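Course exercise 7: structure representation. Students receive a sequence record and must write out the corresponding structure in token form. The form below is the worked example handed out in class, using Coronin (472 residues). Read each field label carefully; the graders check that inputs and outputs are placed in the correct fields and that the protein name is recorded exactly as given.

STUDENT ID: A-19
EXERCISE PROTEIN: Coronin
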Amino acid sequence: MVGGAFCLLGTVLQTGKLDPHYPKVCGHRGNVLDVKWNPFDDFEIASCSEDASIKIWSIPKQLMAKNLTTCRKELVGHARRVGLVEWHPTAANILFSAGYDYKVMVWNLDTKEAVIMSPVRTIDCHQDVILSMSFNTNGSLLATTCKDRKIRILDPRAETVLQEASYKGHRANKVLFLGNLKKLLSTGTSRWNNRQMALWDQDDLSVPLTEEDLDGSSGVLFPFYDADTNMLYMVGKGDGNIRYYEVSADKPHLSYLTEYRSHNPQKGIGVMPKRGLDVSSCEIFRFYRLITTKSLIEPVSMIVPRRSESYQEDIYPPTAGAQPSLTAQEWLGGMNRGPILVSLRPGSELLSPRPLPPERSVFNSVAPASPRPLDQTEKPAAEDGWRPSFLLGEKTPRWAAEHRLEEKKSWLTNGFDIFECPPPKTENELLQMFYRQQEEIRRLRELVTQREVQAKQLELEIKNLRMSSEQF
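STUDENT ANSWER:
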């Protein structure tokens, strides 16, 4: 994303080489430094730039036919370039931004103004450039890392610092709240310049609970945490692998499982929200790797191998949905509320917007089975649309052993339960249904081809048996 523009690509039908004249989102005068989708609106995205501005874009529901140059709102308040933007996890129309003026600004987008000149809160406690931001589950706390090597936990409404870590043995670069575990995870470097991750108690940042050196590479480590399965994924810039761990409240807290390996290094990475996963194939996480050496974006799916193709309830606990639980004014007024939960079962309704259920563990802390290698016949997504999948170990997960349910016999059509999946009611639901059906058609064609090969093999075996019986 350079030159003040960025592209929006389809995740299912967009394969092959991109047209040089492909429509872009333009409007910034400087390089775009960060973009974030609105978690409550699939057609709204925020971007920030070196031109010290933040823009909110309304994306057309159809594929873009021309460059998008008119933004819905522009936020002007930072004195220097803006490097980070983050949407509030539970409140609608609340956006956070961090600039090179060392300030975090809180914006209320619930206004009629097209250009917002002043934020509703300004947090001015950092002594250097802010490197990352992360919210806790209900958005009442904000954690930041700074170039001054400190981790801070802030009350964003009171504009105060609640906790501060200045531990000299760990120079933090990225920080992440770990769901409801009341813990923080940071990545950075040790005093010997090894890449390192550290786990912290949210209420005491004096000394980390545990530290783990990973390697001596220089690329920044990006952590991704799935609170539904207690899985931590560690991605390094310039690396070709993705490590993953199980996180638990008890010692040793972090248990290494295994890793995905590729010969192609990633320069950047993004993730698909849980609502966009393919639950019919037991996909629990999906990455999109930016591979600049081959000029492609490669999807990598983390899949729990199951023989049944019906919905697996034990690996999909209720997750945060696409509806805010608070208005902007309620949150600014001091209210806190957890995310509204939804079931990922096709056609299910919203669940209670009350606090999240207890965290579930994913894997036993013993060493996992070796991962299955990618099939050498699979091609990158940019060539023919195949989706490389990385199958998680065959070992039975802990939550599967504890919460194993008897598989329900159901009638399936195109991967959906025809009794529990009502027809789509909106254009967005219709598009999602269409994409899933296209994927299911492709899978069924592969299955038919395999069955035809098996049938021919059986015919040959029967023919050989008949010939041998005739000889006797």
